[in-house]
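Quick check before the chapter quiz. The format below is the same one you will see on the exam, so make sure you can read both the input and the output lines.
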Amino acid sequence: MQQQLVPTVLALILSLSLASHAQGVSSNGPETFAKLFVDAINSKSLVQRQALLHPKSRACINTQTQPYYDWIFSRQLKRTIPVGVYRVKVEALSGKPLPSPDGRSDYPLQPSHQLEIDFDTAPRSSTSIILLIVRDGEGWHEVLPCPRPEAIAEIQSMAKKRAEQDRNVQTLVAGLADPLRSELKALVEQGRRLDAIKKYAEKTGADLATAKAVVDALVSK
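Here is the expected output.
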C-alpha cells in the first residue's frame, strides 16, 4: 500500500510546486517574468524553470519528448546570470504566425513578445538569452515549440550516440596506465590542461575531442 502511495505523493508535490511557481509568474510586465527566469536559472531548479512555461507548452512534455526539453533546459541551467546587472529588452512580435523554428517543431500557441536578457560573461564579452512569451490572464509565460516525431527521433539518436561515447571514454580512462596517466594528471595540476590533451592525442593517436573527453574524465575521478 505504501509503495502505491509514493508515486501519488510525488506527483502531488510536483503539482503543488508548479502551481506555487506559476502563481509567481503573475505580473503586470514581462520584466517581472525576466526576474523569475533569472531566479529559476540561478537556482538550478528544473521544476522552477518548467513552471515558467505556458500550460500548452508544458503539456508537450512527456516521456518521449523529455530528452528534447532536457537538452534545452540543461544548457540554460549551466549558466549563472548576475543578479541586478543583467539587461532586459522587450519587443512586440508582428502578430503573424511564427514558422517552425527548426522545421521539426511547432508552437502550440502564438507568442506575442520577444524577451531578451543580456548579461556580461567576461570583461569584453556578453551573452544573450532570447525567450518568446505571451500574456495569459494575469501572467506571462514562455512559449516553447512542441517537437514533431522526427525531432524526437533525432534527439533520441543523439542521446544514444552520447551514451556510447561516454562508455568509450570510460573504457579508455580505465585502460590508461602509467607513466602517461601520472603525466597527464601532473600537467592538469600545473594548470596545463591543454598540454595534457595534446600529449594524450600525440601518445595515443586519438583526435582532440576524444583526448579532451579522456583528460576531463581522468581528472574528475
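If your answer matched, good. Residues 1-27 have pLDDT under 50 and may be disordered.
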